[in-house]
Amino acid sequence: MSPSARDARLLRWLAFAAGLASAVLILIVLFLMQESWPVIARYGLVHFVSARGWHPTEGTFNLVPMLAASAATSALAIALATPLGVAAAIFSRFYAAGIVGRLLHWVIVLLAGIPSVVLGLWGLTVIVPLILKVAPPGTSLLAGSLILALMILPTIALTTEAALASLPSAYGIGAAALGLSREAIIINIAIPATKASIFAGVMLASARALGETMAVLMVSGNVVQLPKSLFDPVRTLTANIALEMAYATGDHRASLFVSGLALTAVVLALAAVARRSGGQVVHA
Amino acid sequence: MHSLAVYRSAHRIALRDRTLQLLVLAAVVVITSTFGWLLLDIVWHGANRIGWEFLTAAPRSAGRNGGIAPILLATVLILTVALAVSAPLGLATAILLSEFSRPGGRAGYWIGLSLDILAGVPSIVFGLFGNAFFCVWLGLGFSILSGGLTLACMVLPILIRTAESGLRTVPNDWRLGAAALGISKASALVNVLIPAAAPALVAGLMLGIGRAMAETAALIFTSGYVDRMPASLLDSGRAISVHIYDLTMNVAGGDRSAYASALVLIALLILINGAASWLAERTLKRRITAS
Amino acid sequence: MTITGESEGLVEAVDGKAYTVGPLLSGPPCCRPETQIRVDGLSLGYGGKPALKDVSLDIYRGCITALIGPSGCGKTSLLSCLNRLTDLIPGCRVEGRIMLDGADIHSSGVDVQALRQRVGMIFQKPNPFPLSIRRNLEMPLKEHGITGRSELAARVERSLVDVGLWDEVKDRLDGAALSLSGGQQQRLCMARALVLEPEILLMDEPCSALDPLSSAVVEDLIETLRGRYTVVIVTHNLGQARRIANYAAFFWVNDRAGTLIEFDQCRRLFEQPRHQLTAAYVRGLRG
Ligand SMILES: Nc1ncnc2c1ncn2[C@@H]1O[C@H](COP(=O)(O)OP(=O)(O)OP(=O)(O)O)[C@@H](O)[C@H]1O
Ligand SMILES: [Mg+2]
Fold first, then answer.
1. Could B27 and A84 be called an inter-chain contact, meaning their C-beta atoms sit closer than 8 Å?
2. For chain B, what are the domain ranges?
3. Cβ within 8 Å, pair B213-A104
């Protein structure tokens, strides 16, 4: 076979493969819509925010408590993880360029590699008992946020680190030549110059936090209620799917797909914002 | 007066600098000590249960006793299915993106966009999809095949993006050189470009394996819970992460086994990553010194 | 504007020796000004920005033609048209005709890979593949359908002998090509082009990445190709152009696009340039 013919055949195969790979997303969207359509058609979308509670056996599917729980745990986790992650990146960029900085980097990479189910296990056996001493039952919004914070911290730290590393070193040299202290450089130059990337990292981390299932499921108690305090047990949207999917049928099952669809929409919107502000996914 | 003001502002700046320094250090201490605590806790509680028997025996009394042999086998089978499907598909798509699509071209843009979106889909949603599509629609039921295929969809974006960037870092000189010799892109890829990108390809593959192995939510209702030794790909099989979840949440007194399994899982992940860097380094060395 | 060298029978080569056709190519003896490639009204642009405007010249069979001119005047671009490497550059548009032995190589029916086998190319930066020396040479051969063990071995040896590399590497053919020195790598790249038995060799500043000694070795090597191959060489080294070329083409940037100013026998272009720009440019040589 001639080289050109070989390339033409190769290209056909590659296009086929790429078509399949792109079809996955389309299939996912199609199946989520198809599975959730019956209950949307029957009750309308408003039902999911206005119904009297989440009582699948009685046909009321109010997702608001779950939405609130997801939002609250994620927001708190972001509030905890952002300063820590940014501080870690600043540390390895400005305070410990040598072996200590590398060490911290590896700690963060390793942390990123810990499976969320293991974080959940550790949270349930270590963190939850500690919270229980303060206010029962221990499994709570707070526990969920703490574990989530630990999980998304690497995302924020690594995106910030990458952004700081991509700053032209002229910034640092020029600033040092002006007689600015290291801290002044960090506060007045480095952070403002990488603001957009840090923001993008935070958006990506929020998306991960909202989409996380196991870690929150294992430590936050899974009671369907609007949280009134940090120590209340809550059930997030993802946990709800994981817990009820095993036995749900009919409208109940369909409403779980509705929550999956809603979750996907929110998470993708966040990812889109992150993309807009110039963040790239750090695979770690 | 004037010098006093200068003195005051200098003082304020010194205070600010000192505070920032302390805050950063405190954050680092919090992160490392939490990580150390987590790791030590798992090793401490997990190590005493691990032994030859734990790795080779079947679980007894819902996993409180016995071992995890069927679970390890199911994990390996699920991963094998996932990679057997996603690795060729991913490599092919990466080649299309890096070698055949023009920068800024339309096909490349849309494929890339769909991959970025796919990468953002939460794993529980992959679980929903896998259940609806593979288990129900294709009739594969709760099976290792369903779970593996679901994971294949999930790791596809990582595999493609890492392979694509690996191929893009291969110097263009070789592409031009091959083209100028009338060598087809197919041969250039097989003989030069893919071997040159091999370290990056392997690293991406390992990243994908790591992600797949750590996954729980997408597997609970695709590959299922059954902890018997799987006899075929159509049997339900319990992945190790699902095992940890089940022991923690549903089995009173399952903590010790859960910790031991977690330790095994983490050890496997570290092993895979180590193997990846070793392989990558070896490939790199061989490329420079010999054929 | 078409400028071509004058047809005046056999052109004597620089050193006055008579060259004959080598064993790899049968055909008329060297430097009879018989057109092998006719570039006719060639214009080229990158993404709408013109880089070459209305270039016409003839390239003669078996001769060495040097392309000279300041940086950015489109010499590399012209070379890339001759083996259609321009196809690989996104946004590159080529107009005009390039006739190789009477057939337009930019027409759609042309088998590009077969064309590139006839028209070899050597790049400025040596680019041997990250394979063994032997596989660097065998891979292109296998690609073009030559698979017999003995034939492969014979052609690998012949091409390495041709570039004077055989004695240096015959004991380590399975060693990495990238472990060779820069000059050796460049000669390996030449061997890799020669192993396909092309008719035409395009060289883009083949000596500029090399030290003076390796550069001299490669230059001598190019000399030996005269008569057996048609060579088109881009060089910034006017002395080198003068030493080895039979014909020379001088390019200059006019209105941001490269144009051909003068094309003539090499000695005449250097000694009696017809154009003022040429005169000024080659005077740089004399200091
Ligand atoms: N791939 C490309 N994309 C866009 N513009 C290009 C590209 N390659 C070359 N050009 C432009 O085309 C013009 C001619 O470039 P070319 O490389 O042919 O010049 P050259 O004579 O070979 O220069 P040099 O002596 O420096 O190698 C230049 O202005 C250059 O900027
Ligand atoms: Mg050039």
1. yes
2. 2-49, 53-290
3. no
Residue C209 sits in a domain whose CATH number is 3.40.50.300
pTM for the model stands at 0.85
Cβ separation C129–B174 shorter than 8 A: yes
Taking a contact as any Cβ pair under 8 Å apart, which residues of chain A between 12 and 71 contact chain B? 13-18, 20-22, 24-28, 31-32, 34-35
The three-state secondary structure class of C56 is strand
Residues of C in contact with A5 (CB under 8 A): none
Of C14, C15, C9, the C-alpha closest to C29 is C9
Task: Locate all alpha helices (DSSP H) within chain B, ordered by sequence.
Answer: 2-47, 52-56, 69-95, 106-120, 123-130, 144-168, 172-180, 185-188, 194-214, 217-220, 240-250, 255-289
| Ligand 1 proximity of C86 Cβ (cutoff 6 Å) | no
A contacts of C144 (beta carbons < 8 Å) = 3
Contact B31 A267 (CB under 8 A): no
| Secondary-structure class of domain A49-283 per CATH | mainly alpha
- Beta carbons of B132 and A90 less than 8 Å apart: no
Closest atom of ligand 1 to C258 CA is: 14
What secondary structure does DSSP assign to C86-133, as a single string?
A: GGGSTTEEEEEEEEETTEETTSTT--HHHHHHHEEEE-SS----SSBH
User: Could you give the number of structural domains in chain C?
Assistant: 1
Distance CA B115, CA B85 (A): 16
Structural domain includes residue C22: no
pLDDT tens, per residue, chain A with 284 residues: 566 778 888 999 999 999 999 999 999 999 999 999 998 888 888 888 887 888 888 888 888 999 999 999 999 999 999 999 999 998 888 888 678 888 888 899 889 889 999 999 999 999 999 999 988 888 899 999 999 999 999 999 999 988 888 877 656 656 666 767 777 778 777 888 888 888 888 998 999 999 999 999 999 988 888 888 889 999 999 999 999 988 888 889 999 999 999 999 988 888 888 877 765 544 44
CB of C253 within 6 A of ligand 1: the answer is no
In a domain, C168, yes or no: yes
Q: Are strands C64-68 and C247-254 parallel, antiparallel or unpaired?
A: parallel
Q: Where are the domains of chain A?
A: 49-283
Ligand 1: does its nearest atom lie under 6 Å from the Cβ of C257?
Answer: no
Q: Does A84 touch chain B (CB under 8 A)?
A: yes
- 3-state DSSP call for residue C73? coil
Using an 8 Å CB-CB cutoff, list residues of chain A that contact chain C.
2-4
* Chain B contact for A178 (CB, 8 A cutoff): no
A188–B contact, CB cutoff 8 A: no
- What sign does the dihedral B98-B104-B107-B111 (CA atoms) show? positive
3-state secondary structure of B177: helix
Q: Is residue C14 part of a domain?
A: no
Ligand 1 touching residue C72 (CB < 6 A): yes
What the block records as the tokens of A120 is 């959940």
Distance CA B169, CA B45 (A): 44
- Pick from A20, A24, A29, A153 the residue to mutate for testing the B interface (most B CBs within 10 Å): A24
Closest CA to C32 of C2, C59, C61: C61
Question: Of the candidates B5, B250, C197, B229, which has an alpha carbon nearest to the alpha carbon of residue A124?
Answer: B250
Q: Which chain B residues touch A89 with a CB distance below 8 Å? A: none
Beta bridge partners of C64: C231
Domain B53-290, second-level architecture: Orthogonal Bundle (1.10)
Domain contains C6? no
The DSSP string of C132-155 is: BHHHHHHHHHHHTT---HHHHHHH
Going from the Cα of C67 to the center of ligand 1, the distance in angstroms, rounded, reads 14
Structural domain range at position C159: 34-282
- Do C56 and C262 touch, CB atoms closer than 8 A? no
Task: Determine contact: C285 vs chain A, CB below 8 A.
Answer: no
